[in-house]
Every structure is written in structure tokens, then in C-alpha cells.
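Quick question about two entries, pasted in order.
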Amino acid sequence: MKTSEVLKFGLEQIQRGWTIRAFARDANFQPVGLESPNTVCWCAVGALYQKIKNPYSEQLKEALSILDSVIREQNSTLSILHWNDQPGRTKEQVIAVYRAAIEKAEQKELS
């Protein structure tokens, strides 16, 4: 699977529901495991884990690396996980970073 496809899946999850300070939450906004059938929202990192179950996967590392690079381009020194949880962060900002990361991944795949 291409990195852009992993990121597109993550974007779809975020568009369905986004959260902070937990990888995933249920409809009552309670933290749940990533494998829970009750999950309704994910953080920027948790959304990727839904597709790539192995936290040591090269695909996951590459997707996270591209997300981190997009965030660094915005003059942030935070990792994607900490950036996601910043006070005032919005779902729209997370979606914008995902879209930029997908574009970057697709360009990399073409070269």
C-alpha cells in the first residue's frame, strides 16, 4: 500500500470524527482502544493506526514522517501527536495538514 493511500484513509477517519488527548474515543467521548467497535473519533495519529495495525510498520513511520514534515513547514517544532493536542487546535487544521501530507506523498511516489 502506498503512503498516500494510508494518509487518505487517515483523512477519511478524521473527517468522520476527530479528538484530542486520546488515540480514539467513543460516542460518550470516553477514550477507547483503537480496536474498539465503539470508536467514533480519532486523533491525527490514531486515525492511521486504524489502517496499519503494526506500530513498527515502515508505512506507518513514513506516513507519520510526512505529517511531521508538513507541520514543521508551518514553523512548529511539535510532533504530530503533540501538535494534534495543542489547545485551540481544530479539526479543520488537522484536515488541512492531512491534505498537504497526501499531496507531498503523491509527489514523492511519482518521483
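Here is the second entry:
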Amino acid sequence: MRIYAGFDWDHDSYLRADRHVRSHQLFYYEKRLTGGIRFDLRHLGFELSGGYAFDRFYFEGGRYSNHNENRIDIPRRTVRRRSDHAEILTAHRSRYN
């Protein structure tokens, strides 16, 4: 049995259609806290994990220092949210060899 925890600060950037100037990129940022437990047997394994995603937003600009300009925060949409920019994440995995 293994127990694990982690923190991820992830981002993606895109050039929108017909825009070739790097200062007009679309950025997405998200922070996540995750944790879980994993059981491994000889030919069988199970994993149960969960997490908390927060501070998620899009913006258009050339670098992170532009993150307050042309910004779109991801709004609250489910009951499971803990704040305006957070959401509960859950997952499970199993395998058989």
C-alpha cells in the first residue's frame, strides 16, 4: 500500500486562429492539490485518488505578468465547490495483468 500527495501548478498556452504574434497568446492556469492511496498485488492493482482544483483562469497576453488583463475566471458551477475558483476532483483506477 502506498499513500501519496502532491501539488501541481499547470498552464497551457495557445495561439488563436489567424494570430501569429506571441503577445496575443491565450493562456490557461490551474492549481491542484491531490492525494490518494494505491494497493498493488501480484497481478492486480487499485488506486483511489482525489483532489482540489483552484485558482483557474484564462487570459490573453504575452507572458504571466499580463494575467490581470483580459482575464476570465472560471466561475462556480457545482455544489461541490469550496470557493469561487475551486472544484473537488475524484478518480479511481484498476489494472489486471
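Reply: The chain has a mean pLDDT of 78. The beta strands are 2-15, 25-40, 44-61, 71-73, 86-96. Hope that helps.
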